[in-house]
Design a protein that fits this description.
Radius of gyration: 21 Å
Distance between the termini: 72 Å
CATH superfamily of the largest domain: NAD(P)-binding Rossmann-like Domain
Strand content: 15-25%
CATH topology of the largest domain: Rossmann fold
Shape: globular
Number of strands: 14
Number of helices: 13
CATH class of the largest domain: Alpha Beta
Strand order of the largest sheet: 3-2-1-4-5-6-7-8
Largest sheet: 8 strands, mixed
CATH architecture of the largest domain: 3-Layer(aba) Sandwich
Mean pLDDT: 90
Order of helices and strands: HHEHEHHEHEHEEHHHEEHEEHEEEEH
Number of domains: 2
Helix content: 25-40%
Length: 353
């Protein structure tokens, strides 16, 4: 009827199909809205994880990622597009902008940082759950150390080729990551995306398993967790659950049994890290505070092979056949080498020590 006031939308209209699930309901949906998660890594796994949890209504998502977007990311990293590459956006910022258009009712906080032993505790402050979207064992062991030390759950995930792994970790209840993998595998036993490739559907499967376990935890249902190490082969259509509980029950884990936090203490850490499948090395900075990207751009212009591009988020320059990307926190990614010493040398030469 003309002039008749339109009825207000029913509560939880956005989440209506989720709320009617027996496993969720309105009370647990409110718990999701009150939850805070920290996602470390916003590449293949991280973009699917962030997209799923933001759409599900998780109230606060901190997205931490140290990298920028490249064309080969678009095959599997679902939050990015060609416009993000043209805009020279870091992954964390591009993801946050996209997700805010998906769900304006929740808070999405981007952090274009390298998560390491000096900042992880501060970044994770207030987070109820830590999520793995990373591509290397050093960062995973760092997350594991913090989770065990602070008695917070986290979810491990990894994908390579057509296969992947997923495991929720409840400190001092389930095995932690170092119960299962006491040390990182040697390089020859640890293939990368560059050497083995990665199938996007395998990424989606593992990220969906991670997100499902995250929703169980955030809605207060730890008894519903799948406490096995899940092994996925997307190409073969195989999903196998491995019972690894004995690694905790009978083992003498250096982290959760001996109380050694080697990665969180910085005992095991490097100033340069080779990036998975990238022919690139990240070099950390000892500089305190932000660097002046404008000033560095002017300094590099005379030696760069092409115009130096920079904005508020990062600076990019091609010098000596290497592509160098510098971030405001002083970190740099040197593309064109997988040798940390060479990367550190180039960093010192062009950005200072």
């Amino acid at each position: 009827m003309p002039g008749k006031k339109q009825a207000a939308p029913p509560p939880h209209e956005r989440y209506a199909r989720q709320v009617i699930l027996e496993q969720i309901g309105e009370k647990r949906q409110r718990r999701l809205a009150e939850s805070r998660v920290m996602l470390v890594g916003c590449g293949a796994l991280g973009t699917v994880l962030a997209d799923t949890l933001v759409r599900a209504g998780v109230g606060h998502t901190l997205i931490c990622d140290r990298d920028f977007i490249e064309p080969n990311n678009l095959q599997r990293q679902v939050l990015f597009d060609e416009d993000d590459i043209a805009a020279n956006l870091p992954k964390a910022e591009a993801a946050a902008r996209k997700l805010r258009r998906v769900n304006s009712e929740v808070n999405i906080e981007p952090a274009a940082v390298d998560v390491n032993h000096t900042n992880i505790a501060r970044l994770a402050e207030g987070a109820h759950l830590l999520l793995d979207g990373t591509d290397n064992f050093e960062t995973r062991f760092l997350i594991n150390d913090l989770a065990v030390k602070t008695e917070r759950p986290w979810i491990y995930g990894a994908v390579i080729g057509t296969t992947g792994l997923c495991m929720p970790i409840i400190p001092h209840d389930t095995p932690c990551l170092r119960c299962v993998f006491e040390e990182a595998p040697p390089p020859e036993m640890n293939p990368t995306c560059d050497t083995a490739g990665v199938l996007a559907t395998a990424v989606n499967m593992v990220a969906s398993l991670e997100a499902t376990e995250a929703i169980k935890l955030l809605t207060g249902q730890p008894d519903q967790l799948n406490r096995k190490l899940m092994n996925v082969d997307a190409w073969a259509g195989r999903l196998v659950g491995l019972n690894v509980q004995s690694t905790f029950d009978k083992g003498n884990c250096p982290c959760c049994k001996q109380g050694r936090y080697d990665y969180l203490s910085g005992k095991i850490a490097g100033t340069a890290a080779t990036l998975c499948g990238r022919d690139a090395v990240q070099v950390a900075s000892t500089h305190q505070g932000e660097v002046d990207l404008d000033a560095i751009a002017r300094k590099l212009q005379s030696v760069a092979a092409s115009p130096v591009r920079h904005n508020h988020f990062m600076l990019r320059a091609s010098i000596e056949g290497y592509e160098m990307t510098l971030f405001p926190d002083g970190r740099a990614i040197i593309k064109g080498t997988d040798e940390p010493e060479k990367a550190r040398s180039l960093y010192a030469k062009y950005f200072g020590t």
